[in-house]
Amino acid sequence: MIVTKGLRKSFRPRRGAATVDAVRGIDLDVAEGRIYGLLGPNGAGKTTTLRMLATLLPPDGGAATVAGADLRTDPGEVRRRIGYVAQGGGTTDHATAREELVLQARMHGIRKAEALRRAEQGLAAFDLTEFGDRPCRTYSGGQRRRLDLALGVVHRPKVLFLDEPTVGLDPRSRAQVWTEVRRLRDQGMTVLITTHYLDEADALCDRIGIVDHGGIVTEGTPEQLKQQISGDAVTIGLTDTGATARAAHVLAELPCVRRLEALPEEDGLRLHVDSADTAIPQLLRALAAAGLEPDHVQLQRPSLDDVFLALTGRSPVHS
Ligand SMILES: Nc1ncnc2c1ncn2[C@@H]1O[C@H](COP(=O)(O)OP(=O)(O)OP(=O)(O)O)[C@@H](O)[C@H]1O
Hints:
By secondary structure, the protein is α/β, with parallel strands linked by helices. The protein folds into 2 domains: 2-226, P-loop containing nucleotide triphosphate hydrolases (Rossmann fold); 232-300, Alpha-Beta Plaits. Helices cover 37% and strands 27% of the residues. It has helices spanning 46-53, 75-81, 97-107, 112-125, 141-152, 171-186, 198-204, 222-230, 241-252, 276-289, 304-312, and strands at 2-11, 20-30, 35-39, 61-66, 69-70, 82-85, 159-163, 190-195, 207-212, 215-220, 232-237, 257-263, 268-273, 296-300. The chain has a 6-stranded mixed β-sheet with strand order 6-7-8-3-9-10, sandwiched between helices. The two termini are 32 Å apart. Residues 11, 13, 20, 22, 40, 42-48, 194, 196 line the site of adenosine-5'-triphosphate. Adenosine-5'-triphosphate is lined by residues 11, 13, 20, 22, 40, 42-48, 194, 196. GO terms for molecular function: ATP binding; ATP hydrolysis activity.
């Protein structure tokens, strides 16, 4: 639904100043009905990529098709098939949500009666009916963000671009925005979001591209990315020191165990495995065969933080 090949963009801030290579050849292939996240630190090139795909910025090189339309030769068609919600949104203070929705629909060439109907539907779908006739300046951050989403999809685009959709929102409003975005995906929309929040990428995205210095460093499902770094860690607690020593001896022999650490304080072991889902049954069988019964078994999956740090050497927000 979104395919890019070698997409590039450079800026020259002022005459004589050095060129900034904001995007240095990005390849993407986003399937229909998926939420794809561009995750990266400030200045990585996420917004520039999104703005190019939304036809707001001409690329310097490379090619892209969005919802089947060619970005270079048919930007007008791309524009008709997409919705774009900018960082910080675009609502005015004095207008009401209903007025904004009608105006947006009319700007997409929708007739008045249908625009009114779409506004009503938009208010209901994004839980805005209660204050839909109040000026936008009276809305909370979360309510404004939901209105931004409603405005972005009033013309029923196939693809939605969301730039940092939850910046500045409290946890409850963030969760609400995530719910709305998932709902759009479940209705078949393809969503490309930028974020520098790891938890957001993890919770929301079907696939993630980690962007750094204008390029995609790695790409995959959140699970694949986590596994790429360190697999899973399984902690096993045993009844006493003797049992722990015997368990260590038995488990170290198993091919699925990459590394084994003793946790002497807790009479336990930490095992590093490729995938806990397949390893845990093997570990339990091996322990049972040796007459050992664990007190508890706990799974620790690596976080996207670990992935990000391993790939870029720094944390995504404070870089
Ligand atoms: N109009 C512009 N003129 C000059 N440089 C620009 C312009 N727009 C972006 N840049 C530079 O290009 C690089 C990429 O910026 P971009 O906004 O795409 O990053 P980002 O990953 O979206 O960051 P953020 O998370 O802060 O939004 C940065 O170094 C930025 O300063």
